[in-house]
Amino acid sequence: MKREDYINWDAYFMGIALLSAERSKDPNTRVGACIVSEDNKILSVGYNGMPMGCSDDEFPWSREGNPLDTKYPYVCHAELNAILNFAGNDMKGAKIYITLFPCNECAKALIQKGIKEIIYMSDKYAETDIVIASKRMLDAAGVNYRQYNSINKEIILSL
Ligand SMILES: O=c1[nH]c(=O)n([C@H]2C[C@H](O)[C@@H](COP(=O)(O)O)O2)cc1CO
Ligand SMILES: [Zn+2]
């Protein structure tokens, strides 16, 4: 008899997005993303971080102050990193698991790459223009999005 308490696909891929987020140096919001093909094969992963060559220790991580002294102009979003990290050339019809609802800029990139479904965890910026614009484009482009249905299972990894 097979074991019955194995995790489902959604938990598996969201788990990988959550683990990827643990690599983020952002002190406020860690974001992880996992892109998966229609037949449940992992295509790519990413998390929010500074671009290559832009030191995590030298670039700012603050949220407020002079815009050039905040993280916002520099940090590469998790979804964009996942798209850019993809080594193949076709992700049409794929899904993306993300720990935070994608912003408008990432939504554009996801649409253009042919992503058809977004499974997200937090939607903490739902009231912002950025997310409203994102949903407007995703709706128009026929990209389906749904919140991850938590199975409340805790997985402890000993490293
Ligand atoms: O879709 C996203 N993907 C993503 O990776 N991020 C990153 C950029 C920042 O490092 C962080 C957001 O920072 P904060 O919550 O402090 O404003 O999350 C932010 C969004 C935004 O909405
Ligand atoms: Zn984004």
TrEMBL record:
The keyword Zinc applies. One of its GO terms (cellular component) is cytoplasm. SUPFAM superfamilies: Cytidine deaminase-like (SSF53927). It is an enzyme of class 3 (hydrolase). Its cofactor is Zn(2+). GO terms for molecular function: dCMP deaminase activity; zinc ion binding. InterPro entries: APOBEC/CMP_deaminase_Zn-bd, CMP_dCMP_dom, Cytidine_deaminase-like, dCMP_deaminase, dCMP_deaminase-rel, Deoxycytidylate_deaminase_dom. The active site is at E79 (proton donor). GO terms for biological process: nucleotide biosynthetic process; pyrimidine nucleotide metabolic process. Belongs to the cytidine and deoxycytidylate deaminase family. This is Deoxycytidylate deaminase. It comes from Herbinix luporum.
